[in-house]
């Protein structure tokens, strides 16, 4: 039955099993908004990625990791205040819990995705694809735009009462 076999092959190809899904097609109810990158230098430099992620699914999901083809190392970082009152970045152990129905903000001065060892220069306006891995959802690809001119948001990007801070 050659026709039936061909049909099966087409169905298998359309299934995309194991292939990361683009953010807008993600079936688990995860939505990423406003993803952008700030780059500190050219090739070999570091970059930080910021975005909002909503978990609109009916279950808790943990963001466990991140990779990028354009960086030798990528990870989830938090900003914490040391005993001396200095802000420092530390890797987030165990991932970021995204409770059902809630939003998590990756923002300047807070949690962010850290890229280390950029494999090439990234120009303003360029798109950087990022692969997010989860416990409780399928892998997702996010497109972050390089925006080095962006002014820092005050804490809480959705809080309209906060005044903008100077760069
Ligand atoms: Cu960092």
Can you describe this structure?
By secondary structure, the protein is mainly β. The protein has one domain (20-146): Immunoglobulin-like (Sandwich), CATH 2.60.40. Helices cover 8% and strands 46% of the residues. It has 1 helix and 11 strands. The chain has one helix at residues 2-15; strands at residues 21-22, 30-40, 46-55, 61-67, 71-81, 87-91, 96-98, 103-106, 112-118, 127-135, 140-146. Strands 1, 2, 3, 4, 5, 6, 7, 8, 9, 10 and 11 form an 11-stranded mixed sheet that branches. The protein is globular and about 40 Å long. The model is unreliable at 8-17 and 159-167 (pLDDT under 50). Copper (II) ion is lined by residues 48, 77, 89, 112, 114. Copper (II) ion binds at residues 48, 77, 89, 112, 114.
What secondary-structure arrangement, pairings included, does this model have?
Layout: H1 2-15, E1 21-22, E2 30-40, E3 46-55, E4 61-67, E5 71-81, E6 87-91, E7 96-98, E8 103-106, E9 112-118, E10 127-135, E11 140-146
Parallel strand pairs: 1-11, 2-11
Antiparallel strand pairs: 2-3, 3-8, 3-9, 4-7, 4-10, 5-6, 5-9, 10-11
The structure holds copper (II) ion.
Fraction in helix? under 10%
Q: What ligands does this structure carry?
A: copper (II) ion
| Structure summary, number of beta strands | 11
CATH 4th-level superfamily: PCu(A)C copper chaperone
Overall spatial form: globular
Main beta-sheet annotation: 11 strands, mixed
What series of H and E elements makes up the topology?
HEEEEEEEEEEE
CATH C-level class: Mainly Beta
Mean pLDDT: 83
Structural class: mainly beta
In the CATH classification, which architecture applies? Sandwich
């Amino acid at each position: 039955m050659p026709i039936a076999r061909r049909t099966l092959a087409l169905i298998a190809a359309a299934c995309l099993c194991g292939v990361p899904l683009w953010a807008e097609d993600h079936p688990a109810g995860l939505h990423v908004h406003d993803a952008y990158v700030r780059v500190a230098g050219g090739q070999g430099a570091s970059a930080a990625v910021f975005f909002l992620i909503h978990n609109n699914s009916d279950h808790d999901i943990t963001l466990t990791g991140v990779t990028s083809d354009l960086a030798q190392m990528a990870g989830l970082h938090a900003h914490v205040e040391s005993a001396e009152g200095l802000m420092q970045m530390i890797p987030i152990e165990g991932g970021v819990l995204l409770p059902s129905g809630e939003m998590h903000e990756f923002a300047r001065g807070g949690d962010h995705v850290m890229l280390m060892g950029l494999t090439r220069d990234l120009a303003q306006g360029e798109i950087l694809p990022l692969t997010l891995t989860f416990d409780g959802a399928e892998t997702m690809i996010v497109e972050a735009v390089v925006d080095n001119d962006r002014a820092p948001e005050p804490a809480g990007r959705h809080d309209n009462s906060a005044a903008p801070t100077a760069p």
